[in-house]
Amino acid sequence: MKPNVMLSALACSFLLAGMSSSAVAQRATLTVNSWGGAYEKLHKQLIFEPFEKANNVKINVVTVYSADTLAQLRAQKAAPQYDVVHFSGGQEVVAAREGLIAPINAEELPNAANLYPFAKEGMSRGEGPVHLVTAIGLLYNEKKVKNPPKSWKDLWKPEYGDHLVLTDLSNSYGLLGFLMMNKVWGGSIENTKPGLDKVRELLDRSTIISSSPEIQQNFAQNDAWVAAFSQDYAHVVRQGGQPVKFVMAEEGTPAVFFTANLVAGRPNQALAKKLIDFSLSPEVQAAFAREMRYSPTNRLAKLDPAVASEVVYGDAVNGLVRFDPAQVDANRTALVESWKKLIAR
Amino acid sequence: MASHREDWAIAAPGLLLLLLAFLVPVGSILALGVRTEGGEFTPAYVIRFLTEPYYLGISWRTIKLSVVITLVCALVGFPFAYIMARVGPRLRLWLVILITLPLMTSVVVRTFGWMVLLGRGGLVPDIMRSLGLVRRNYTLMHTEVAIVVGMVQILFPFMVLSILGVILRMDPRLEEAARVMGCTFLQSVRRVVLPVATPGIVAGSLLVFTLSASYFITPSLLGGARLPVLAGSIYETATRTQDWPFAAAQSLILFTAVLLLLFPYIRLTRKAGG
């Protein structure tokens, strides 16, 4: 008797599973990538789930980082599997050049009209629009630091002792922070020697982290005072109870630009464009700023004063420094190797 | 002849799995390290590795740490395994559970545990400070000591269990005979137990050495970015800079080094009758 009950229960569940999957198949499906962790959770909550409801579409989210997404797009060139891809490391420049993503006409996205110029500038080159920005600046502990750092060169002030945190260049925040230090000491993307030489002076009094969550641990447990890192993680650390403030250094603020791109050669492009447009809407962007302190790229996004004071906001985003992604990409391998040699004990 | 065929039939699924899931992919990865994009043979990547002081430094650290980890495991593991073999079966069961219990937890979780214990303000630096050994703000994180501590904890069971198996098979009367013939306890351990246990110690050492040479999670978490080891460098090269041929060349070198270790091992165990 028992096995029979089990069997019929099993058969029922298969039947149900079959029915629900065929129901899903009738709805349109979009496949997108996100970057995991807290970001992906928010990505789903603020963009994918509301969009699914409003448009009767199923969004299939795959957790893949930007560099790997680009590698997958190349491998799938003949039969692409994604509809919309999100990049944070400037991969859209390469993807557009190789024809992996399709150009979008700014008129096709109603929200594009309200974007700051830098956010839609890439669209004329066939790249997707910038939907969020996180700035790289200096984080400091308000309780421990008497004279808050104002400029990148302040990292070299002896008063911060051995309480500095630097970030490995395998991390894209670390890479941008380093490129900026290199720039203020007279280097360029092709010539990183000035930056490397100056960082050597800091090695003995700093902790080098490789993954972003370590920044929080260093402020909480390792008595970190000053770090070069991003505004979104400044928020994460503060949420964790540490008295940490974010400042934009006076020589300039490099930033990470998050783009949403339309994959070439996919059937559902109209719907995919609608999804990209949705991520540009002022409400969605304001929610991202509220939840994780990302800067909006839509000038209509309204932020509470408390949130606005903690992100680069308004016309200030136009002043963010963007290192040319193609140039960075061309020099990355050599730079990362010299960096590794520099920091290895 | 027929029984031979049966042997092959029984072994076939395992062999097939080994071939498809191990030999083919690993072989093609290794081949990547000595081929140009066009598919011709090139030693360029291997030469690049062998001529850069940076990579030789990483290799030296990998070997040095693996040797230290193996020695610590063997020195602590042998007495422990001996005692496990000599206590009653009930207590032995509990000791085996105690030794294998950490294996049920993810390596990453255990490594994070060590990060808490060894970091600034953690238990170990705190004790050292109250003993007056170190200054305030002292941390053991991002040191080679941290790597050794973390790795020994992970690999210790492999050593103990390999030695335990050998000592358990030993006839206890051999030891009794040695004692009757006038050996002290330590002499009987050295002249009777140790030679018998050698194959176990060698097998355990080989396991521990190869595992510690190829581990990257624990060394990179406890050692940090400034103390790279070979396995970590392979991982970084493959995933961060996406230089697959060079990553493959590094794997080839690690693989060859471990393989070279196997030969003396086989000779040693053969001599010891294992």
Automatic annotation (TrEMBL), chain B:
Source organism, top-level taxon: Bacteria
Family matches, as Pfam families: BPD_transp_1
Coiled coil: none
Membrane topology field: Multi-pass membrane protein
Annotated ranges, domain ABC transmembrane type-1: 59-265
GO-annotated cellular components: plasma membrane
Keywords: Cell membrane, Membrane, Transmembrane, Transmembrane helix, Transport
Taxonomic source organism: Enterovirga aerilata
Gene3D superfamilies: MetI-like (1.10.3720.10)
Transmembrane residue ranges: 63-83, 95-117, 145-171, 192-217, 244-266
Annotated family: Belongs to the binding-protein-dependent transport system permease family. CysTW subfamily.
Keyword ATP-binding applies: no
Compartments in which it is found: Cell membrane
The protein's name in its UniProt record: ABC transporter permease
InterPro entries named among the record's database cross-references: MetI-like, MetI-like_sf
GO BP annotations listed: transmembrane transport
Keyword hit for Hydrolase: no
